[in-house]
Fold this sequence. Notes:
It is a single chain. This protein is an alpha+beta fold. It folds into 2 domains: 9-42 and 179-320, Beta Barrel (Lipocalin), CATH 2.40.128; 51-171, Nuclear Transport Factor 2, Chain: A. The chain is built from 5 helices and 17 strands. It has helices spanning 9-19, 36-40, 51-70, 74-78, 98-111; strands at residues 81-88, 94-96, 116-128, 131-141, 149-160, 163-171, 191-196, 200-208, 214-223, 226-238, 243-250, 255-263, 268-276, 282-293, 296-306, 309-310, 314-320. It has a 10-stranded antiparallel barrel with strand order 7-8-9-10-11-12-13-14-15-17. It has a 6-stranded mixed β-sheet with strand order 2-1-6-5-4-3. Strand 11 and strand 12 (255-263) form a beta hairpin. 31% of the residues are buried. Mean pLDDT is 80; it is low at 1-15 and 24-47.
Amino acid sequence: MIRQDSLSRSAWIALLASSLVFIGCASTQEPSPPPPAARTATLEEPADWDAAAAENEIREGAALFNRAFNEGDVEAAASCFAADAEMVDEEGMVLRGRAAIRAAFVEALAAAPGRQIEIAIESIRVLSPSYAIEEGVTAVREAPDEAPVESRYTVVHIMRDGAWKMASVRDEPAPGATPRNPLAQLDWLVGDWLDEGEDYLLESSCRWNEGQSYLLRDVTLRVGGEELISLEQRIGWDPLQNAIRGWVFDSAGGFAQQVWSFDEADGRWTIESWAVGGDGSVTAMTNILVPINRDMFRWDSTNRMRDGQPLPDIGTTMARRLGEAKQ
Length: 327
């Protein structure tokens, strides 16, 4: 069952429709969204916020982090992260929280005092006044006379207390480490799933495409027996980013992109999602997917922001369809 907590029924239905099972794409709301002028007036930044200036600030922050790390100033380096930031390295090790990240920096520099990094930013996409995606390449030297080891990275930046902070950092495996079919670890998703409540039915169907190069999903939400919204999702492997990616299109005219990563330590998937709704709203969130057993999985959506405004967390448990579901 979807958690409703203290939300009103209409607000809960709106959240459910806007989340649709770890997708974070649909933009249907109840009641209807305010006009653009009213919506933009609630952003953390002015309506005429400057995306170029935001990008420059993020670049300056990256340069500060690079310089602080190379000078061994772990306090300054750690201050570039949000207090609840998450970092995942190439081997899948997960660090959660600024304190844990700082401790890892201390350990790394103690093991190799001459370690130096060089950050080469390839792109920065400022999606809203409070959310941006950075991608690039890092080169790490353990000692001045050693050849650098390169890896790709993706950083999610958020605006906190008037400053851009790193909220999520993903380092990607080195070339050649990719399995023959990286999507095989998601094979358990194949099948029909549902979550049924008193007046809603959430259905999900997942299958392989003919060449097993993509997973294809269809999701439908019905409320009071009527279809409220549906979406189509394609999950595939991105060889340039060495990552599992998701692309989503919903019946309200919205679309979304995702980056998936797996934490072997606790067996959960983290899905960074950013979307544009059919009404022009920008949504971003971090979704957590945890298989419970072969017939159930848990999904939770956190760090949810729409047009710079926070949304409540939401989650559900989906069960594999074993027989004919009630309509």
